[in-house]
Amino acid sequence: MTKPNPPALDPAQVPEQSVTGYPEPYKARVAGRHKRRLGDAAGLKNFGVNLTRLDPGAESSMRHWHSKQDEFIYVLEGEVTLVSDAGRQKLKRGMAAGFPAGQADGHQLVNETKKAVLYLEIGDRTPGDGATYSEADLAAKLVDGKWLFTHKDASPYE
Question: Contact, 102 vs 70, CB < 8 A?
Answer without folding.
Answer: no
